[in-house]
Amino acid sequence: MATIHDVAKRANVSVATVSRYLNQNGYVSKKSKEAIERAIQELNFVPNHVARTLSTKKSNLIGLIIPDIENPFFPELARAVEDTAYRYGYTVILCNSDEDPNKEKHYLKVLTQEYVAGIIITSTDEKISGEINIPIVALDRVPKTELPTVTTNNKLGAEMAGRFMLGCGAKELLILKGPKQLVSSEERLEGFLKALQGKNIKIHIVESPYELHDAENITFEFLEKHPSIDGIFGSSDVSAIGALKACEKLGRKVPEEIQIIGFDGIQLGNYTTPSLTTVAQKIYQLGEMAAELLIQQIEGKTIEQKHIAIHPELIVRNSTRKEFIQ
Amino acid sequence: MATIHDVAKRANVSVATVSRYLNQNGYVSKKSKEAIERAIQELNFVPNHVARTLSTKKSNLIGLIIPDIENPFFPELARAVEDTAYRYGYTVILCNSDEDPNKEKHYLKVLTQEYVAGIIITSTDEKISGEINIPIVALDRVPKTELPTVTTNNKLGAEMAGRFMLGCGAKELLILKGPKQLVSSEERLEGFLKALQGKNIKIHIVESPYELHDAENITFEFLEKHPSIDGIFGSSDVSAIGALKACEKLGRKVPEEIQIIGFDGIQLGNYTTPSLTTVAQKIYQLGEMAAELLIQQIEGKTIEQKHIAIHPELIVRNSTRKEFIQ
């Protein structure tokens, strides 16, 4: 069944625009209106109005704990969880753990105590601490503990990035790996390295937080020391966008002198210059499936699949070269 | 007294980096470490550890309702509210109203019912609906109803942008005004027009949501019809960044052929190419003061100032020309 997201994608507008159109609330340009109407027909989309009867009962509240509200990946993910929950008549309360295990533990305590019927968490702590006595789903980051999970096949995605980077002819690579406490960042490193196995490529690995500012500073320092680097893999799009800015400040042309690939597929990758080649997670689908998996538990339905891994797709934009070396 | 934000600013790193440094949790590059330590000394910053004793009592929960989690301005604002609340031993629960008055009303009902001790709201509804029986502060957007408010002097800021645009020699301007239901967007239009009064400038005004995608589409359509436009004022940074992309797609050079000024001062404006000239709201200070104003009410302290308007500052980057016409 077509979702609001499918309509947005087909109409080449944002989900927010479609929801403004559907709720007749706020401005939608004539061109967008027409595109949305076309998409709704083509997909024969039927807006779901369960949400109209939203309740304020505790039993309709879902807690969503994300690690960094300033990384656009998480707002986009949260937006998808909210849309879906709303469609099913649930309300989402957001908590930002700020990649701090203590804050995360605190939020888990606050929410489980008395506030929500279930929790979706992107944990900064692979052991998710504190005893949880209500339905829960781990989103994006798979914890060591045994919980229902919805995530991207990170290893596969990073391997795709590695193979593509090779095809583009890079010879000396900088890998901006993510925080070491994250399983997903280790998986992305592993996948990328797998693609380079046995190839005659020089590799530098440095850890960078998923953050524009730090990624920029770290890349700047590193490129100054290693001017022969001609390719960068950012383990997140914000890392890659930070790296892009560092290249600009050093007067290194992207993609002519240095090629850059990110990971995540945030909307922002379209708005940098050059636009960012990236391994796109299906962000909306991730949030949607996590919400559905949680709601199934809350409503005591049987769960067909407890662990969902979604395949990412490589989106080729302008931060990598067009001509391939086979 | 110096805050974590002052330290971040002085050290030229993000607030998140400083908090990672202080909590010794997560990666901080050597260069950043040194910069942070220097800044802490120079500002003689004393980290506040009230937060260590965070409680999960209802009386320590604050609700924060924002209108659009996907507009980076609001995550940055939320981050500031959280930092401050945390410093005072409070926990923040976030709600994303999605610019939908019905969702906003619903969240107000949910939160006031039983969950939080006070609410900070950036309302999408100038009349803030529903009876609120707990302390509340209106943040960023000043509602018609009589509430304590923390906001930016929008009219003044937009007037600064207008004067600067004139100084840069633009002759035909496109104003991407914000959603008409927002007082702030009307104030920004008013302020910008005030600066142009009596000047021989051609002006086009079109409404655009505060959103990359729509702003890009709207600007693209408009520039095709009016190729002689040589200046654009985005009533928000995301509008301006969308406009920047539209110019790129149309092959119009920024700032040589078209100059662009935004409004907000989000971190992202540093990461576009060219980087964005903008009227920067003091985002962190806005969130900080709103949290303090709310906590004063929650704790029954007397409030010296019920309405706070913070002066913005013009940040000149590369989307406007350097040589001024006097």
Automatic annotation (TrEMBL), chains A, B:
Residues 2-56 form the HTH lacI-type domain. SUPFAM superfamilies: lambda repressor-like DNA-binding domains (SSF47413), Periplasmic binding protein-like I (SSF53822). PROSITE patterns: HTH_LACI_1, HTH_LACI_2. SMART domains: HTH_LACI. Gene3D superfamilies: 3.40.50.2300, lambda repressor-like DNA-binding domains. Signal peptide: none annotated. InterPro entries: HTH_LacI, Lambda_DNA-bd_dom_sf, Peripla_BP/Lac1_sug-bd_dom, Peripla_BP_I. The keyword Repressor applies. The keyword Transmembrane helix does not apply. GO terms for molecular function: DNA-binding transcription factor activity; transcription cis-regulatory region binding. Keywords: DNA-binding, Repressor, Transcription, Transcription regulation. Pfam families: LacI (PF00356), Peripla_BP_1 (PF00532). PANTHER family: LACI-RELATED TRANSCRIPTIONAL REPRESSOR (PTHR30146), RIBOSE OPERON REPRESSOR (PTHR30146:SF95). This is LacI family transcriptional regulator. It comes from Ureibacillus thermophilus.
